[in-house]
Design a protein that fits this description.
Layout: H1 2-13, H2 15-35, H3 48-59, H4 61-78, H5 82-93, H6 98-102, H7 108-131
């Protein structure tokens, strides 16, 4: 069970970097959409070049994969009670050490119980996403 919880904690720690890559990738496409010239056809809102970039962005496998990962993590964390969400945010998203987090949870025992509860809930949520 420890290995499973450590694995879930590792997966959650990937969220900030993957979210950043997702935003960068989307911004690149947005820049290309806005910088592509041409004239609009038949009163459309975008030029044919812009429409090609929009379609390419929607099909981009990296954007699709990162978006799916980020959405699943966000949904799993959003369902947690506040103390568990606080732990996940502090440890996995902000990269704080356990010694720093421990102060917010009145000792090691409470912090590790919160950690276990949070990671078990996230694991069940993510497994439910995979099964569904």
């Amino acid at each position: 069970m420890r290995e499973c919880l450590a694995f879930i904690e590792h997966i959650l720690s990937l969220y900030p970097s993957r979210l950043s890559i997702l935003h960068e990738r989307r911004q690149w496409y947005e820049g290309m959409i806005h910088s592509s010239g041409g004239s609009k056809v038949d009163g459309g809102e975008q030029t044919p070049e812009q429409e090609r970039y929009v379609a390419a962005m929607q099909r981009d496998p990296q954007i699709c994969s990162l978006s799916e990962f980020c959405t699943k993590v966000e949904n799993a964390v959003a369902m947690l009670p506040e103390p568990e969400r606080q732990f996940i945010t502090s440890r996995c998203f902000l990269g704080m050490d356990y010694s720093e987090i421990e102060r917010d949870f009145n000792g090691k025992t409470a912090m590790y119980k919160t950690r276990r509860d949070a990671l078990e809930s996230v694991a069940l949520s993510l497994l439910g996403e995979l099964a569904g």
